[in-house]
Amino acid sequence: MTYENILADFQNGITTITINRPDKLNALNKATIQDLHDALDEANKDANTKVIIVTGSGEKAFVAGADISEFAHFNVVNGGKLAAKGQELLFDFVENLSTPVIAAVNGFALGGGLELAMACHFRVASDNARMGLPETSLGVIPGYGGTQRLPQLVGKGRAMELVMTAGMIDANQALAYGLVNHVTVQEELLPLAEKIASKIMRNSSVAIQGAIKAVNANFKDGVDGYQVEIDEFGNCFGTEDFTEGTTAFLEKRKADFLGK
To answer: Architecture of 6-201 per CATH?
Structure first.
């Protein structure tokens, strides 16, 4: 599939999706959000793709925010629809993908960019990364899940400060907050993400799918995460991967998982 605003590349079980609007610091407009949805959906349905990495083109920005020119004239109704559609099409969609998604944050991740990174299953960052939710400086609040996911990751007090001050934190502070898992130099960012992806790919993809569902359930209102865990744990016993994994362990060899 051909995309207008992103690049998608598959190699060795990994699909790397690169947001490619460097002249706009990879800002998210409607077309880019649609491209990302389509590329993520395609990769998720591809049995050969075991891990997805999302990053930005160039060295300055992962995503510097949303394209403000698209919604500066919106009214109350249009603003609400913008947030609802974006969350459905991209941000909630990413979070609930069955294929692991790693955000490789290279440079600025602001507003919708940080919200996209937070929707991914976890994040690694280059040492020049800067992250924040500056929406209150524009007279609006984060609308793509930022007020929900940031407190989950860094705690209520830190999230409140970042949202209220519209400030930025650097990569090392993001690491200390638990917002990112690892920080490295720019040229090692994708190799690091790929190294982690290779470790993920050694394990059962069907078990990982169940784990994603169970972990996400803990953050959903009205959902008993423990019951989801029990259900997904039980489901594993009906898979070929469970048979292979336990047999390989007992035979003292490496498992050869088929993802079934």
So the answer is: Alpha-Beta Complex (3.90)
Instruction: Give, in degrees to the nearest 5, the angle at Cα 178 between 172 and 184.
Output: 40
Runs of H (alpha helix) within the chain: 30-45, 76-86, 92-95, 112-119, 146-154, 156-165, 171-177, 189-201, 205-217, 225-236, 240-250
Domains in the chain: boundaries: 6-201, 205-250
Order of all β-strands in the sheet with 51-56: 6-11, 14-19, 51-56, 101-105, 122-126, 182-184
Q: What is the pLDDT of residues 161-220, one digit of tens each?
A: 999 999 999 999 999 999 999 999 999 999 999 999 999 999 999 999 999 999 999 998
Positions annotated as catalytic residues are 115, 135
The first and second tokens of residue 19, run together, are: 């947001």
Task: Report how far apart, in Å, the C-alpha atoms of 227 and of each of 217, 218, 235 are.
Answer: 9, 10, 12
Given strand 61-63, what is the order of strands in its sheet? 61-63, 108-110, 130-132, 168-170
**Cα distance between residue 140 and residue 76, in whole Å:** 11
Q: Which residue has the tokens 């440079």?
A: 107
